[in-house]
């Protein structure tokens, strides 16, 4: 990459990306443009501007992407009831395609030759960033320092920062207990004691949620209003997508909702233990399935459930911008036309309990479903022929003496 003159760096202002910034300047002798995204991680992003300026950066992008993140990435994902490997709500995964998109947009705006990120060579994020970048700009050059340099420990990074007078706060030599990633959808924890799969996570690790044991003794009731599969109001108050998720995080966190401790299969081949806090997302998943239960046709609902694991895998492995994900999204979005109405939830000590759902588009007919006299709305005698026809193949096999196994 000797011809690289300008690079757009995904920059947080922390240790890793600050070292990367200096390393890019020295190794590639190139100009660096920094891009810092506010995805609702709960930390001040403006200090990154001063740090970048101190290191000679002339073009600095600090973008508030919270609304775009929830509206165009989180909401579409939740329309599919997306869960990876049965549990993970993909909080880190779904943020990466937006960051990749903005990196490419800035590269186009500034005439940069390449982009760079701080993902390691062991993780999924390198794949997600780069698949997204190549899908949006096929000829872009990607610089991944963790796959090139020999600064493979925190101490080496700190020593490099000190040697090159990079403005980093040094808190002694002790390693940070966890590697964390946060945005409006979740906060994740890896490393430290979590690398022993038998060791229980520490209670003081959690940032957003109280423990279920410490949650209020009285339940909290909320009502979520849906329009075409998306939450548009909480307790009758209209909110933007980002406001919805922020409020559900607050309410869920107060009630001990959304903690998860799992071992997942990374795309690069290894297993990894992670802990996650996704209070708002946990509520959203439960509520969305509830409103779909009365508004979706049976076969449409079942087909969505069959396709969801594939959709989840595409997001987890970085194929958000792939033609197959886009095709699936069109089908999913089409299914949401009549997913309108209100869901009432009871939140209690880590639990999300559906206690009511209503919709003008509901397919639930009490006159048919009732256990009381239905006044002829459903002829129960019809069930006999239905059952015999569905049993026909088994009756034939049994009549010929076929053994079941």
CATH architecture descriptor text of the largest domain? 3-Layer(aba) Sandwich
The quaternary structure here is: single chain
Put simply, the count of helices is: 12
Estimate the helix proportion, in percent.
25-40%
* CATH homologous superfamily annotation of the largest domain: HUPs
Total beta-strand segments:
14
Cα shape: elongated
Largest sheet, strands/sense/barrel:
5 strands, parallel
CA-to-CA gap between the ends?
62 Å
Binding site for ATP: 10-18, 37, 118
Catalytic activity: L-citrulline + L-aspartate + ATP = 2-(N(omega)-L-arginino)succinate + AMP + diphosphate + H(+)
Main location: cytoplasm
Pathway: Amino-acid biosynthesis; L-arginine biosynthesis; L-arginine from L-ornithine and carbamoyl phosphate: step 2/3
Description:
The protein is α/β, with parallel strands linked by helices and 405 residues long. It folds into two domains: 6-77 and 89-163, Rossmann fold; 179-296 and 338-358, Argininosuccinate synthetase, chain A, domain 2, CATH 3.90.1260. The chain has twelve helices and 14 strands. The protein has helices at 15-28, 47-54, 66-79, 96-110, 125-136, 154-163, 241-254, 279-295, 298-316, 323-335, 366-369, 382-399, and strands spanning 6-10, 31-38, 60-64, 114-116, 141-143, 179-182, 187-190, 220-227, 230-234, 237-238, 259-265, 271-277, 341-348, 351-358. The strands form three sheets. The protein has a five-stranded parallel β-sheet with strand order 3-2-1-4-5, with helices on both faces. The longest helix is centred in the last third of the chain and has 19 residues, at 298-316. The protein is elongated.
């Amino acid at each position: 990459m000797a011809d690289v003159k300008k690079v757009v760096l995904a920059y947080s202002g922390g240790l890793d990306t600050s070292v990367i910034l200096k390393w890019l300047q020295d190794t590639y002798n190139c100009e660096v443009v920094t891009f810092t995204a506010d995805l609702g991680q709960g930390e001040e992003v403006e200090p990154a501007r001063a740090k970048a300026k101190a290191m000679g950066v002339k073009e600095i992008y600090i973008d508030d992407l919270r609304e775009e993140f929830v509206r165009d990435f989180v909401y579409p994902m939740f329309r599919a009831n997306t869960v990876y490997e049965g549990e993970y709500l993909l909080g880190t995964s779904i943020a990466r395609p937006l960051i990749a998109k903005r990196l490419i947009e800035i590269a186009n705006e500034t005439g940069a030759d390449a982009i760079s990120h701080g993902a390691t060579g062991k993780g999924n994020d390198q794949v997600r960033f780069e698949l997204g970048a190549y899908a949006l700009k096929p000829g872009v050059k990607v610089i991944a320092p963790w796959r090139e340099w020999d600064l493979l420990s925190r101490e080496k990074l700190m020593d490099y920062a000190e040697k090159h007078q990079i403005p980093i706060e040094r808190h002694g030599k002790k390693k940070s207990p966890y590697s964390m990633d946060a945005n409006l959808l979740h906060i994740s924890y890896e490393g430290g004691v979590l690398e022993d799969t038998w060791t229980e996570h520490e209670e003081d690790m959690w940032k957003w949620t109280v423990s279920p044991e410490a949650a209020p003794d009285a339940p909290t009731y909320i009502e979520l209003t849906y329009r075409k599969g998306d939450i548009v109001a909480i307790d009758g108050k209209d909110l933007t997508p980002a406001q919805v998720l922020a409020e559900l995080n607050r309410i869920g966190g107060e009630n001990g909702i959304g903690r998860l401790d799992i071992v997942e299969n990374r795309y690069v081949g290894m297993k990894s233990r992670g802990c996650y806090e996704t209070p708002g997302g946990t509520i959203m998943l439960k509520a969305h399935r509830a409103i779909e239960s009365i508004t979706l046709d049976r076969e449409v609902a079942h087909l969505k459930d069959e396709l969801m694991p594939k959709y989840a895998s595409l997001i987890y492995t970085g194929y958000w911008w792939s033609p197959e994900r886009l095709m699936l999204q069109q089908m999913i979005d089409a299914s949401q036309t009549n997913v309108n109405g209100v869901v009432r939830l009871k939140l209690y000590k880590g639990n999300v309990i559906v206690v009511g759902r209503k919709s003008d588009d509901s397919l639930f007919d009490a006159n048919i479903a009732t256990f009381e006299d239905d006044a002829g709305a459903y002829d129960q005698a019809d069930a006999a022929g239905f059952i015999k026809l569905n049993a026909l193949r088994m009756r034939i096999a049994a009549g010929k003496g076929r053994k079941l196994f």
